[in-house]
Design goal:
264 residues, alpha/beta, 2-enoyl-CoA Hydratase, Chain A, domain 1, Lyase 2-enoyl-coa Hydratase, Chain  A, domain 2, 2 domains, 3-stranded mixed sheet, 9 strands, Enoyl-CoA_hydra_C, isomerase activity, lyase, EC 4.2.1.17, Putative enoyl-CoA hydratase echA8
Protein backbone atom coordinates (compact mmCIF):
# COMPACT_ATOMS: atom_id res chain seq x y z
CA UNK A 1 0.00 0.00 0.00
CA UNK A 2 1.29 3.45 -0.93
CA UNK A 3 2.20 5.61 2.06
CA UNK A 4 2.20 8.89 0.11
CA UNK A 5 -0.15 10.37 -2.47
CA UNK A 6 0.76 13.02 -5.04
CA UNK A 7 -1.88 15.05 -6.88
CA UNK A 8 -1.00 17.84 -9.29
CA UNK A 9 -3.60 20.45 -10.20
CA UNK A 10 -3.24 24.06 -11.38
CA UNK A 11 0.54 23.77 -11.17
CA UNK A 12 0.44 22.79 -7.47
CA UNK A 13 1.54 19.38 -6.23
CA UNK A 14 -0.29 18.22 -3.13
CA UNK A 15 1.84 15.59 -1.36
CA UNK A 16 0.06 13.82 1.48
CA UNK A 17 1.38 11.27 3.98
CA UNK A 18 -1.36 8.63 3.98
CA UNK A 19 -0.79 6.60 7.13
CA UNK A 20 -3.34 8.57 9.10
CA UNK A 21 -4.36 5.64 11.30
CA UNK A 22 -0.78 5.60 12.68
CA UNK A 23 -0.43 9.40 12.87
CA UNK A 24 1.71 9.09 9.73
CA UNK A 25 4.54 7.47 11.71
CA UNK A 26 7.60 6.66 9.63
CA UNK A 27 8.09 3.01 8.72
CA UNK A 28 10.34 1.75 5.87
CA UNK A 29 7.50 2.00 3.34
CA UNK A 30 6.83 5.60 4.39
CA UNK A 31 10.48 6.48 3.91
CA UNK A 32 10.40 5.01 0.42
CA UNK A 33 7.11 6.76 -0.39
CA UNK A 34 8.34 10.20 0.72
CA UNK A 35 11.58 9.87 -1.21
CA UNK A 36 9.76 8.65 -4.32
CA UNK A 37 7.26 11.51 -4.11
CA UNK A 38 9.94 14.17 -3.69
CA UNK A 39 12.28 12.80 -6.33
CA UNK A 40 9.33 12.46 -8.71
CA UNK A 41 8.92 16.24 -8.57
CA UNK A 42 12.53 17.15 -9.28
CA UNK A 43 12.06 17.33 -13.06
CA UNK A 44 8.38 18.34 -13.20
CA UNK A 45 8.41 21.60 -15.16
CA UNK A 46 4.63 21.95 -14.79
CA UNK A 47 4.81 22.17 -10.97
CA UNK A 48 5.29 25.63 -9.46
CA UNK A 49 4.71 24.94 -5.75
CA UNK A 50 4.24 21.97 -3.40
CA UNK A 51 1.96 21.56 -0.37
CA UNK A 52 3.17 18.85 2.01
CA UNK A 53 0.62 17.57 4.54
CA UNK A 54 -0.44 14.59 6.63
CA UNK A 55 -3.66 12.61 6.45
CA UNK A 56 -5.91 12.52 9.51
CA UNK A 57 -5.20 14.24 12.80
CA UNK A 58 -1.42 14.60 12.64
CA UNK A 59 1.34 15.70 10.32
CA UNK A 60 3.80 13.02 11.46
CA UNK A 61 4.43 11.38 14.84
CA UNK A 62 8.02 10.52 13.96
CA UNK A 63 9.77 7.19 13.69
CA UNK A 64 7.81 3.96 14.06
CA UNK A 65 10.49 2.53 16.33
CA UNK A 66 9.28 -1.07 16.06
CA UNK A 67 9.84 -0.97 12.31
CA UNK A 68 13.55 -0.27 12.55
CA UNK A 69 14.90 -3.07 14.71
CA UNK A 70 17.52 -3.80 12.05
CA UNK A 71 19.35 -0.62 12.99
CA UNK A 72 20.08 -2.03 16.44
CA UNK A 73 20.90 -5.56 15.26
CA UNK A 74 23.59 -4.69 12.71
CA UNK A 75 26.41 -2.19 12.42
CA UNK A 76 24.70 1.23 12.14
CA UNK A 77 27.64 2.56 10.15
CA UNK A 78 26.80 0.16 7.34
CA UNK A 79 23.32 1.69 7.12
CA UNK A 80 23.93 5.35 7.97
CA UNK A 81 27.29 6.22 6.45
CA UNK A 82 26.80 5.36 2.74
CA UNK A 83 25.66 8.35 0.67
CA UNK A 84 22.85 6.71 -1.29
CA UNK A 85 21.15 9.93 -2.47
CA UNK A 86 23.81 12.42 -3.52
CA UNK A 87 25.00 14.09 -0.32
CA UNK A 88 22.44 12.25 1.84
CA UNK A 89 21.71 8.78 3.14
CA UNK A 90 18.24 7.26 2.82
CA UNK A 91 17.02 8.68 6.14
CA UNK A 92 18.32 12.19 5.43
CA UNK A 93 16.75 12.21 1.98
CA UNK A 94 13.20 12.33 3.38
CA UNK A 95 14.07 15.81 4.62
CA UNK A 96 16.65 16.98 2.09
CA UNK A 97 14.67 15.99 -0.98
CA UNK A 98 12.31 18.92 -0.28
CA UNK A 99 15.29 21.27 -0.30
CA UNK A 100 16.30 19.76 -3.64
CA UNK A 101 12.85 20.14 -5.20
CA UNK A 102 13.37 23.30 -7.30
CA UNK A 103 10.08 25.00 -6.37
CA UNK A 104 8.83 26.25 -2.99
CA UNK A 105 7.52 23.58 -0.61
CA UNK A 106 4.98 24.56 2.06
CA UNK A 107 4.38 22.16 4.96
CA UNK A 108 0.97 22.20 6.65
CA UNK A 109 1.36 21.05 10.26
CA UNK A 110 -1.32 19.85 12.67
CA UNK A 111 -1.69 17.53 15.64
CA UNK A 112 1.88 16.48 16.23
CA UNK A 113 5.13 17.03 14.36
CA UNK A 114 7.74 14.99 16.19
CA UNK A 115 11.26 13.72 15.64
CA UNK A 116 11.62 12.53 12.08
CA UNK A 117 8.37 14.29 11.25
CA UNK A 118 9.88 17.55 12.49
CA UNK A 119 12.88 17.02 10.26
CA UNK A 120 10.68 16.34 7.22
CA UNK A 121 8.89 19.61 7.90
CA UNK A 122 12.26 21.36 8.17
CA UNK A 123 12.94 20.38 4.57
CA UNK A 124 10.09 22.63 3.45
CA UNK A 125 10.65 26.29 2.60
CA UNK A 126 7.73 27.39 4.79
CA UNK A 127 5.84 25.78 7.68
CA UNK A 128 2.24 26.74 8.54
CA UNK A 129 0.87 25.17 11.73
CA UNK A 130 -2.50 24.88 13.42
CA UNK A 131 -2.42 26.63 16.83
CA UNK A 132 -2.71 23.37 18.78
CA UNK A 133 0.14 21.59 17.00
CA UNK A 134 2.78 20.06 19.29
CA UNK A 135 6.35 19.87 18.04
CA UNK A 136 9.55 18.30 19.30
CA UNK A 137 13.08 17.52 18.22
CA UNK A 138 12.45 14.17 19.85
CA UNK A 139 15.58 12.10 19.24
CA UNK A 140 17.12 12.55 22.71
CA UNK A 141 14.16 10.62 24.15
CA UNK A 142 15.68 7.52 22.53
CA UNK A 143 19.30 8.44 23.31
CA UNK A 144 19.90 9.72 19.78
CA UNK A 145 20.68 12.96 17.96
CA UNK A 146 18.83 14.49 14.99
CA UNK A 147 20.14 12.61 11.95
CA UNK A 148 17.58 13.05 9.18
CA UNK A 149 18.89 16.31 7.75
CA UNK A 150 17.74 18.49 10.62
CA UNK A 151 21.24 19.60 11.55
CA UNK A 152 21.76 20.97 8.04
CA UNK A 153 18.78 23.30 8.55
CA UNK A 154 18.11 23.93 12.25
CA UNK A 155 21.17 26.18 12.81
CA UNK A 156 19.80 28.51 10.09
CA UNK A 157 16.46 28.86 11.90
CA UNK A 158 17.21 28.91 15.62
CA UNK A 159 19.49 30.72 18.03
CA UNK A 160 22.16 28.36 19.30
CA UNK A 161 20.85 28.36 22.87
CA UNK A 162 17.29 27.56 21.76
CA UNK A 163 18.54 24.80 19.46
CA UNK A 164 20.58 23.27 22.27
CA UNK A 165 17.68 23.39 24.71
CA UNK A 166 15.31 21.68 22.28
CA UNK A 167 17.82 18.97 21.37
CA UNK A 168 19.10 18.31 24.91
CA UNK A 169 15.62 18.09 26.47
CA UNK A 170 13.39 16.83 23.59
CA UNK A 171 10.71 19.08 25.16
CA UNK A 172 7.33 19.33 23.47
CA UNK A 173 6.50 22.90 22.47
CA UNK A 174 3.27 24.32 21.07
CA UNK A 175 2.95 25.99 17.70
CA UNK A 176 2.91 29.50 19.17
CA UNK A 177 6.27 28.96 20.86
CA UNK A 178 7.60 27.30 17.71
CA UNK A 179 6.59 30.38 15.72
CA UNK A 180 8.26 32.70 18.23
CA UNK A 181 11.49 30.71 18.00
CA UNK A 182 11.47 30.36 14.21
CA UNK A 183 10.56 26.70 13.72
CA UNK A 184 7.15 27.66 12.33
CA UNK A 185 6.54 30.45 9.81
CA UNK A 186 2.97 31.30 10.79
CA UNK A 187 -0.17 29.92 12.44
CA UNK A 188 -3.50 29.18 10.76
CA UNK A 189 -6.65 27.49 12.00
CA UNK A 190 -6.70 25.48 8.76
CA UNK A 191 -3.04 25.08 7.82
CA UNK A 192 -3.72 23.04 4.68
CA UNK A 193 -6.07 25.68 3.29
CA UNK A 194 -3.56 28.41 4.18
CA UNK A 195 -0.73 26.43 2.57
CA UNK A 196 -2.78 25.92 -0.58
CA UNK A 197 -3.67 29.61 -0.77
CA UNK A 198 0.00 30.53 -0.44
CA UNK A 199 0.94 27.94 -3.06
CA UNK A 200 -1.63 29.45 -5.43
CA UNK A 201 -0.15 32.90 -4.85
CA UNK A 202 3.36 31.61 -5.60
CA UNK A 203 2.14 29.67 -8.65
CA UNK A 204 0.97 32.97 -10.14
CA UNK A 205 4.49 34.41 -10.11
CA UNK A 206 7.15 33.94 -12.79
CA UNK A 207 8.04 30.22 -12.64
CA UNK A 208 11.63 30.80 -13.65
CA UNK A 209 12.09 33.66 -11.16
CA UNK A 210 10.63 31.61 -8.29
CA UNK A 211 12.90 28.65 -9.09
CA UNK A 212 15.87 30.96 -9.38
CA UNK A 213 14.99 32.61 -6.06
CA UNK A 214 14.86 29.25 -4.26
CA UNK A 215 18.21 28.24 -5.70
CA UNK A 216 19.76 31.61 -4.86
CA UNK A 217 18.48 31.56 -1.27
CA UNK A 218 19.88 28.06 -0.81
CA UNK A 219 23.23 29.14 -2.26
CA UNK A 220 23.41 32.20 -0.03
CA UNK A 221 22.52 30.20 3.10
CA UNK A 222 25.32 27.71 2.46
CA UNK A 223 27.93 30.33 1.53
CA UNK A 224 27.42 32.88 4.30
CA UNK A 225 31.15 33.25 4.84
CA UNK A 226 31.85 33.96 1.18
CA UNK A 227 30.18 37.28 0.38
CA UNK A 228 32.06 37.59 -2.90
CA UNK A 229 30.65 34.28 -4.13
CA UNK A 230 27.11 35.20 -3.07
CA UNK A 231 27.27 38.55 -4.85
CA UNK A 232 28.54 36.87 -8.00
CA UNK A 233 25.81 34.23 -7.86
CA UNK A 234 23.19 36.93 -7.32
CA UNK A 235 24.34 38.70 -10.48
CA UNK A 236 24.46 35.46 -12.48
CA UNK A 237 20.92 34.52 -11.45
CA UNK A 238 19.57 37.95 -12.36
CA UNK A 239 21.32 37.95 -15.73
CA UNK A 240 19.61 34.65 -16.55
CA UNK A 241 16.16 36.18 -15.92
CA UNK A 242 16.29 39.65 -17.49
CA UNK A 243 14.65 39.83 -20.88
CA UNK A 244 13.55 36.20 -20.93
CA UNK A 245 9.93 35.25 -21.77
CA UNK A 246 8.70 34.88 -18.20
CA UNK A 247 10.18 38.18 -17.12
CA UNK A 248 8.83 39.99 -20.17
CA UNK A 249 5.37 38.54 -19.53
CA UNK A 250 5.47 39.87 -15.97
CA UNK A 251 6.39 43.32 -17.25
CA UNK A 252 3.58 43.29 -19.83
CA UNK A 253 1.05 41.99 -17.30
CA UNK A 254 1.96 44.76 -14.85
CA UNK A 255 1.66 47.40 -17.54
CA UNK A 256 -1.69 46.02 -18.73
CA UNK A 257 -2.97 45.52 -15.18
CA UNK A 258 -3.75 41.81 -15.64
CA UNK A 259 -2.59 38.50 -14.30
CA UNK A 260 0.43 37.08 -16.12
CA UNK A 261 0.03 33.95 -18.23
CA UNK A 262 3.05 31.68 -18.42
CA UNK A 263 3.67 28.84 -20.82
CA UNK A 264 4.67 25.59 -19.07
Amino acid sequence: MSRVSVEVENHIARVTLTRGDKMNALDPAMFDGIIEAGEGLLDRTDVRAVVLAGEGEAFCAGLDVMSFGALASGDPKDILMPRSHGDSNRFQQVCMVWQKVPVPVIAALKGVCLGGGMQIALGADIRIAAPGTRLSILEMKWGLVPDMGGMAILPRLLRSDVLRKLIYTNDLIDAAQAEAWGLVTELADDPEAAALALAEQIAGKSPSAVRSAKALIGYAETHLADIEAVLLEESRAQAELIGKPHQMEVVMANMQKRAPVFKD
